[in-house]
Write a structure and sequence with these properties.
With 75 residues, this protein is an all-alpha fold. The protein has one domain. 52% of the residues lie in helices and 0% in strands. The chain is built from four helices and no strands. Helix 2 crosses helix 3. It is elongated, with a radius of gyration of 13 Å. The model has no long low-confidence stretch (mean pLDDT 88).
Length: 75
């Protein structure tokens, strides 16, 4: 896994785990990462990741029927 460094202003009051979840949920929403990959990036279990998605305004359901069928087959 690749490591990147991001400089965040001191007045942004978020935990490191929040930043990881924000990035992981966006990459999941955009279809770049699977839910399992995004969960690993966020440092949580797949179940926890899916449960937390709503807090970041991301739907657990994919946008296309093909993606949904693929997710069901891979579950």
């Amino acid at each position: 896994m690749r490591t990147i460094q991001i400089n965040i202003p001191d007045d942004v009051d978020l935990k490191d785990s929040d930043f990881s979840m924000i990035i992981a949920s966006k990459l999941y929403e955009d279809g770049i990462l699977s839910s399992g990959q995004a969960a690993e990036l966020a440092g949580v279990s797949k179940r926890t990741f899916i449960e937390l998605l709503g807090h970041y305004n991301v739907s657990v359901f994919t946008k296309s029927l093909n993606d949904l069928e693929s997710d069901i087959c891979n579950a």
